[in-house]
Amino acid sequence: QTRASPLGAAALREARRGMRLAEELGLPLVTVIDTPGAELSPDAEERAIAGEIARCIATLTTMKVPTVSVILGQGCGGGALAFLPARTVIATEHAWLSPLPPEGASVIVHGDVLHAAEMAERQRVRAADLLADGIVQHVVPEVDGESPRDLAVAVAARVSALLREQVGGALAVGA
């Protein structure tokens, strides 16, 4: 298993090209969030990472085609927030979303990472918290012993159903 790397400005520009293409072709767009965040470096700042995050958010919020965001695992920082604002957001049961990782929040507040679990609780980053707070509309259960393939099939089924609902709703409104 490889560890995901932070998203750079170039990756976010590429994602926006995909968003624009989906809009031009009238295709639904699904974003998948499983990232440790956006790249944090002087080089990333020079390449306008903050502006690219903002442009991704602006593009997603103004799209006319059906959109679904899937929080699949960790959703951290601007890299995750750039792909979040879809019409419908779903999360797997053990996924989480936070603008700042709980370890970082612990260092800021307590000067160490020992309070990360407490910070995660206070930040309400878990899928169940996100659902209760209205950030996520659906949570896909993860069954103990379930294969990654089974989880992928369950997520794909939920995404497919949500896209059908959005397309049906768009047709009803346009009719």
* Oligomerization category of the chains in this entry: single chain
- Secondary structure category: alpha/beta
Strand content: 15-25%
Order of helices and strands: HEHHEHEEHHHEH
Number of strands: 5
Give the termini separation. 48 Å
Report the total helices: 8
Indicate the percent of residues in helices. 40-55%
Low-confidence stretches: 171-175
Structure description:
The protein has 175 residues and is an alpha/beta fold. Helices cover 51% and strands 16% of the residues. It has helices at residues 9-25, 42-46, 49-61, 77-81, 102-110, 116-123, 127-132, 148-174; strands at residues 29-35, 67-76, 88-92, 96-98, 138-140. Strands 1, 2, 3, 4 and 5 form a 5-stranded parallel beta sheet that branches. α4 links the parallel β2 (67-76) and β3 (88-92). α1 packs parallel to α3 (49-61) and α5 crosses α6.
Question: Briefly, what is this?
Answer:
The chain is of the alpha/beta class. The protein is built from 8 helices and 5 strands.
Write out key terms for the chains shown.
disordered C terminus; alpha/beta; five-stranded parallel β-sheet; single chain; globular
List the helices and strands and how they pair.
Elements: H1 9-25, E1 29-35, H2 42-46, H3 49-61, E2 67-76, H4 77-81, E3 88-92, E4 96-98, H5 102-110, H6 116-123, H7 127-132, E5 138-140, H8 148-174
Parallel strand pairs: 1-2, 2-3, 2-4, 3-5
Helix pairs in contact: 1-3, 5-6
